From TrEMBL:
<feature type="domain" description="JmjC">
    <location>
        <begin position="126"/>
        <end position="298"/>
    </location>
</feature>
<dbReference type="InterPro" id="IPR050910">
    <property type="entry name" value="JMJD6_ArgDemeth/LysHydrox"/>
</dbReference>
<dbReference type="GO" id="GO:0043565">
    <property type="term" value="F:sequence-specific DNA binding"/>
</dbReference>
<dbReference type="InterPro" id="IPR003347">
    <property type="entry name" value="JmjC_dom"/>
</dbReference>
<dbReference type="Pfam" id="PF13621">
    <property type="entry name" value="Cupin_8"/>
</dbReference>
<dbReference type="InterPro" id="IPR041667">
    <property type="entry name" value="Cupin_8"/>
</dbReference>
<dbReference type="GO" id="GO:0005634">
    <property type="term" value="C:nucleus"/>
</dbReference>
<comment type="similarity">
    <text>Belongs to the JARID1 histone demethylase family.</text>
</comment>
<dbReference type="GO" id="GO:0045905">
    <property type="term" value="P:positive regulation of translational termination"/>
</dbReference>
<dbReference type="GO" id="GO:0016706">
    <property type="term" value="F:2-oxoglutarate-dependent dioxygenase activity"/>
</dbReference>
<protein>
    <recommendedName>
        <fullName>JmjC domain-containing protein</fullName>
    </recommendedName>
</protein>
<dbReference type="GO" id="GO:0005737">
    <property type="term" value="C:cytoplasm"/>
</dbReference>
Length: 488
């Protein structure tokens, strides 16, 4: 029995869409959309593709052949995903070309000769080739806290496995995917319940989407395991409500970008030889999705080892270690991220106040944006507090002086300033003034009265209130809307 398709994903001409329309209709409402007209000037679209729309695989071997990449064997399931192997880009390209020659000559079908379709996934291309500038992230997807943060910090530092030079494999969420016709990605929802965008440099993809309100339908009776391939003969006994799921479908063509909202399960098939670029990201609109997932995964991690609680010296520590291993971060990591991102927004507000004579109107829009960021962080900090998530973790606090002295933090501020500048069409402030900013910041009432400059979670909540009150913006509850058509 096949799946039930309830409709198609909307396609829009992004050149006629403003950022504020995108926010209102898709990002805030958490709805998928395909966007056309955003890839006109991408170098990737010229260098990586022949005029007939086929991928120029030789280009990859010649220029990036030595890169080590993760390749999924689309025919082999391992745990909940496809089996992965590591190889060089040259090896991957050779395998692809060999297979397609055999196919053209009619000598084999992939599977009958034991050749599985291979799919290169999660290649951290931008991190590895920062000079090459294959593409520019469309403005719609620039409010990206995840990659901005990861350009300067690690999400999780495991003291046992930490290697300072293992930068590329765990550094960001900006990827290239490459796969021959027939390669595919099993059903999943994205890491951290982030948003993602995926751009087809060449080829076509079929996407099947299930809205978060129906996600229980792809889970088993215990709400533990989920369906791997929705086109399999899915067992009704194991997944009793799978047949009731109603899917949205989309065929994404070359030069189209799909926006994947938070928490939507999706399965993806390459209908032709396809190269795509995709990013995962989150911001004030979906931050609560990240926290909800973390909390749910924490409860699961705890439940899993409940029976050894009494014999465990540090039960909470073990839960947090397991959470980081399974989800990619734990409560401490998330709190560290929140506090640093929060302080960067306050620094940016200070910077704006200094420069606001230049452009009152734009500045006030940026101030609203920053205030909204701060409010969304504050809301999550309050939730973390209310579930007692940080209880027992005496090490969790924000030390303002130490943070301001950290070069990574100043880089984070510079990155945030660049993004705000792009989004709100502001000239970038002079980063040399950051020393003054530090002085400005230390002048803030809430920091002066705190004395030590060290904030625990409940103090951070008050700090955010005061920073918004002192530094302008609105109270941060309003949505930031840009008035101009600024999307393209
Ligand atoms: O293109 C693919 O095969 C999978 C991409 C994906 O799942 C995503 O961008 O979220």
């Amino acid at each position: 029995m096949g799946i039930r398709i309830g409709g198609q994903i909307e396609k829009v001409n992004a050149k006629e869409l403003s950022y504020s329309e995108f926010v209102l209709k898709y990002m805030e409402k958490n709805q998928p959309v395909v966007m056309i007209g955003l890839m006109d000037d991408w170098k990737a679209c010229k260098d990586w593709v022949f005029d007939n729309g086929k991928p120029n695989l030789q280009f990859f071997s010649t220029h990036f052949g030595n890169s080590r990449v993760q390749v999924a064997d689309c025919g082999t399931k391992e745990f909940t995903d496809q089996k992965r192997v590591e190889m060089s880009v040259s090896e991957f390209v050779d395998h692809w070309l060999e297979n397609s020659m055999e196919e053209q000559s009619g000598a084999s079908t992939n599977l009958s000769h034991g050749h599985h379709v291979l799919y290169l996934k999660d290649w951290h291309f931008v991190k590895e080739y920062p000079e090459y500038l294959a593409y520019t992230t469309p403005l719609f997807f620039c409010d990206d806290w995840l990659n901005l943060y990861l350009d300067n910090y690690r999400m999780h530092k495991d003291p046992d496995t930490y290697q300072a030079n293992n930068e590329i494999s765990c550094s960001d969420y900006r990827f290239v995917y490459m796969g021959a016709k027939g390669s595919w990605t099993p059903l999943h929802a994205d890491v951290f319940r982030s948003y993602s965008w995926s751009a087809n440099v060449c080829g076509r993809k079929q996407w099947l989407f299930l809205s978060p309100s129906q996600c229980n339908r792809v889970f088993d009776r215990n709400m533990k395991g989920s369906v791997y391939n929705i086109f399999d003969d899915v067992s009704e006994k194991e997944f009793p409500s799978f047949k009731e799921a109603t899917w949205l479908e989309c065929t994404q063509e070359q030069n189209e970008i799909i926006f994947v909202p938070s928490g939507w399960y999706h399965q993806v098939h390459n209908l032709e030889d396809t190269i795509s670029i995709n990013h995962n990201w989150f911001n004030s609109y979906n931050l609560s999705w990240v926290w909800d997932l973390l909390l749910r995964d924490y409860d699961e991690a705890k439940e899993y080892i409940e029976d050894i609680r009494d014999i465990c010296d540090d039960f909470e520590g073990l839960c947090q270690r397991n959470l980081a291993a399974n989800t990619g971060m734990n409560f401490n990591d998330f709190y560290f991220f929140l506090t640093h991102f929060c302080l960067a927004n306050v620094v940016e507000l200070c910077c704006l106040r200094r420069n606001c004579e230049n452009s009152i109107h734009s500045s006030s829009l940026v101030a609203q944006h920053l205030a909204m960021n701060l409010r969304s962080v504050q809301k999550i900090v309050l939730e973390i507090e209310s579930v007692g998530g940080l209880a027992g973790n005496r090490g969790i606090f924000l030390d303002i002086r130490e943070t301001l002295d950290d070069p990574s933090f100043l880089n984070l501020c510079t990155g945030l300033e660049r993004v705000c500048g792009m989004m709100h069409k502001l000239k970038s402030g002079n980063i040399d003034t950051k020393k003054d900013l530090v002085d400005d910041l230390m002048d803030l009432d809430s920091i002066r009265t705190n004395g030590s400059g060290v904030f625990k979670a409940e103090e951070l909540v008050i700090f955010i209130d005061k920073a918004i009150a002192n530094l302008g913006g609105t109270n941060g509850d309003e949505i930031v809307l840009l008035s101009e058509r600024d999307g393209a």
